[in-house]
Specification:
By secondary structure, the chain is mainly α. About 70% of the residues lie in helices and about 0% in strands. The protein has a two-stranded antiparallel sheet with strand order 1-2. Strand 1 (about 335-340) and strand 2 form a beta hairpin. Helix 10 packs antiparallel against helix 11 (about 260-270), helix 12 runs antiparallel to helix 16 and helix 22 runs antiparallel to helix 23 (about 550-575).
Length: about 725
């Protein structure tokens, strides 16, 4: 290189050039890593934070979004110098302009800011995630539905951890009775989007454009913003007010916002979601800086260290004094435990603090939430230490915020697994994103042009990450397949109860779409968890009996018989987890075989009986089967068998109904009436036709018209949308 050419680059510019390369390299590595994870077969690997886009169709749009960010690195590596004209320093403000110039500048920024806020609101209202199971939030929709129908219902959404969110959503549902139960969540998402974008664009009107863009990229284009797109969960408000808190705090350090404004946003965030209490140490640090300065008897850096350590000490105390043992709702357990309910094992929780898979999930959560920023952060920290900016007030605030986020990520009891509890990780990631934001802004003050050099690449990667994440979750097929893979991945690590709820959400999804093959596949996975066998076995049997193809119906019944036999065998050997009471197997096996007999599958029943008799030597409920096949039995013998088969401890409502019909047939009306009543108390909503059977019994046998009316009215109340309800209404008109 000639002397003339060498003189064009000052030592400062060379340093800035190498620093920009240092920060760009990990972002580029992330792009390549994400692209390879997307196009490769990663089913055997735990890479859910990288390979999520692989569930989308592998078309040109996907590859464009994956690889286009690489082009934004080309100018950075092509140019041998970085534009150092003008400082991006947060310390350099517009204060050198006169009042008139500043007013004109603010006015010119206000209109675009308002347009961006309006556009974000329209976007949040236009794009809705495909299905509520992504955050396992369908339970919340069911709670709202109950609230709408019962003014006295105590909605469990109104809980300490999401108090104000529950009140707002429940209040809207009760007041407006929306036909679409998703509407309250959609409006909450739009409101959250407006709050967060308004904070970013209105509170930063005096900032230089690159600083505003960086804040928008790291806080608005994070994957956590998906909670604003009709997401059925309770995170929209707490996420939005957390964003507002961090922007207001940044501006407070800049002297552009009063110290109480972040406090207001933090208070609102905590009221809407108690998990945001993790930001409290950072606000205490801000107050320390505001009222005591950086030095003095207790310097700011020492205060930051104490505020970072105190929550850790509190968590350590919780472990030491046993508050985190077993099934804690808030703190991840140290060791696996068997969850015992009513003396029976309901399965093991192995998703514990030191589980390697959980630490892999923490890394995945950071990669999903922060994208390339995750890999960039260690280099930014190193550069910040070298440049001496780590002890600046705003950076200490960022470090305290990031410590709070990591505290939630590491020690929070994400009992569904972090892959399904990604929204908790997204909230925690905000604190880490703020640290990255403040560090880059401080470094840009030391290295003029650094931010302008790396911002296009970082923005391109973050935006592509957000678009891909939104596309996956707005695509019904892709989101369902991905969710099933996540539930299967964590089966055996999380409690069977939580695996079961995941499959239950999928079952309802496939049922609503009349996807028969996927429905039965999911039902088999539900049964394999061993949890709530009474629900999963009964649902599978009901679905199999509704099949119109006799061959398919027989095949599904045969599979169910084999699964039940295997389950009974494991129970007899004591190798079954979760455990089930022997009575359940005795009762359901009779229910299954009775149902098969009623549709003419005698050969199937006779073959299965041999195996059931061997595994269940004591089986009084089998007498119901004998009565179905023995038409010559006397009334006295029949009633004796019925009394032996059904007693006060019988739990299966189907067996009660069957016995009620047999008692009625053998002239024992009093016992039949008692069993009809017991069966419908046990299952008041699942089988509306039972109300018609009970009403018909009283009209034909006992002549008790009042009892018949009571059953018909109960049918209307408990199953108003069912075909049986229509028949009940017609019958009521005839007997009144």
């Amino acid at each position: 290189m000639s002397t003339a050419k060498r003189s064009r680059q000052s030592p400062s510019t060379k340093t800035e050039f190498s620093s920009a390369h240092l920060l760009a390299a990990p972002v580029l590595f992330f792009v390549v890593l994400r692209g390879l994870a997307t196009i490769a077969d990663t089913a055997a690997l735990r890479l859910w934070g990288l390979d999520f886009a692989g569930w989308l169709p592998h078309n040109g749009i996907l590859h464009l979004l994956l690889w286009l960010p690489l082009l934004f690195a080309y100018p950075l590596f092509k140019n041998r110098s970085i534009d150092s004209g003008g400082s991006d320093s947060p310390a350099k403000r517009s204060g050198n302009r006169d009042a008139g110039e500043e007013h004109t500048a603010l006015s010119s920024r206000l209109l675009p800011a308002m347009l961006l806020i309006a556009g974000a609101a329209v976007l949040a209202g236009s794009i809705q995630v495909a299905y509520g199971f992504l955050g396992d939030g369908t339970w919340y929709a069911a709670e709202l539905f109950r609230s709408m129908g019962d003014p006295g219902y105590a909605n469990s959404m109104i809980k300490p951890s999401a108090w104000l969110t529950g009140i707002v959503l429940d209040g809207y549902a009760r007041a407006f009775q929306p036909a679409d139960i998703r509407l309250p969540f959609q409006y909450a998402g739009i409101a959250g989007m407006v709050i967060s974008t308004a904070a970013v664009f209105l509170l930063t009107l005096r900032e230089k454009l690159p600083s505003v863009v960086l804040a928008a990229v790291l806080l608005l284009c994070a994957t956590g913003s998906l909670v604003f797109f009709g997401y059925i969960e309770l995170y929209a408000f707490v996420y939005a007010f957390s964003v507002a808190y961090f922007i207001a705090s940044w501006q407070c350090f800049r002297g552009e916002a009063p110290y109480w404004l972040p406090g207001v946003f933090l208070l609102l965030a905590v009221l809407f979601g108690a998990s945001s209490i993790i930001w409290l140490p950072s606000y205490l640090l801000l107050l320390h800086w505001k009222f005591r300065g950086e030095e003095g008897g207790f310097p700011l850096r020492r205060a930051a260290g104490v505020l970072i350590l105190l929550p850790l000490i509190a968590i350590a105390g919780a472990y030491i004094f046993g508050f985190a043992e077993g099934d804690s709702a808030y703190i991840v357990p140290l060791a696996p435990f068997d969850r015992i309910i009513d003396g029976l094992s309901t399965g093991w929780q192995r998703y514990t603090l030191f589980l390697p898979d959980r630490w892999a999930d923490i890394l995945n959560a950071l990669l999903l939430t922060l994208g390339g920023g995750t890999l960039m952060l260690p280099f930014v920290l190193w550069l910040g230490k070298r440049e001496g900016v780590l002890l600046r007030p705003a950076v200490l605030f960022g470090l305290t915020s990031a410590a709070g986020g990591m505290l939630l990520l590491v020690f929070g009891n994400t009992f569904l697994g972090l892959a399904r509890d990604w929204d908790v990780a997204a909230l925690a990631g905000l604190g880490i994103a703020v640290l990255l934001l403040l560090l880059l802004l401080e470094l840009s003050g030391k290295r003029q042009g650094l931010l302008r050099a790396v911002l296009p690449l970082l923005a391109a990667v973050s935006v592509s990450q957000f678009i891909l994440w939104t596309m996956v979750n707005a695509d019904e097929e892709a989101s369902a397949l991905r969710f099933e893979a996540l539930v299967s991945m964590d089966a055996g690590l999380v409690l069977p109860m939580n695996t079961f709820t995941g499959y239950e959400n999928l079952r309802k999804f496939h049922q609503s779409g009349a996807q028969q093959e996927a429905y039965f596949h999911t039902m088999r996975s539900m049964i394999a968890t061993g949890y709530r066998r009474d629900v999963s076995y009964a649902e599978y049997l009901s679905a199999a009996l509704k099949l119109t193809d006799a061959g398919h119906r027989r095949a599904e019944l045969q599979w169910l018989i084999n699964a039940l036999l295997e389950d009974i065998h494991r129970g007899s050997e004591g190798t079954q987890s979760p455990a089930a009471a022997p009575r359940f197997y005795r009762e359901f096996s009779v229910r299954l075989l009775l149902s098969a007999l009623q549709i003419g599958e005698h050969a199937l029943v006779n073959e299965a009986l041999k195996y059931f008799k061997d595994l269940q030597p004591t089986w009084p409920e089998r007498k119901l089967l004998e009565l179905q096949e023995d038409s010559e039995v006397t009334q006295t013998v029949a009633i004796e068998r019925l009394d032996a088969a059904i007693d006060d401890a019988t739990d299966d409502a189907f067996l009660m109904m069957t016995a009620a019909g047999l008692h009625a047939g053998y002239g024992n009306a009093a016992k039949a009436a008692q069993l009809y009543e017991s069966a419908l108390k046990r299952e008041p909503t699942l089988y509306p036709s039972w109300y018609l059977a009970a009403a018909a019994f009283h009209l034909r046998t006992t002549g008790d018209r009042q009892a018949a009316q009571r059953y018909l009215q109960a049918c209307l109340e408990n199953a108003p949308e069912s075909p049986s309800a229509k028949q009940a209404a017609e019958l009521l008109q005839t007997i009144r």
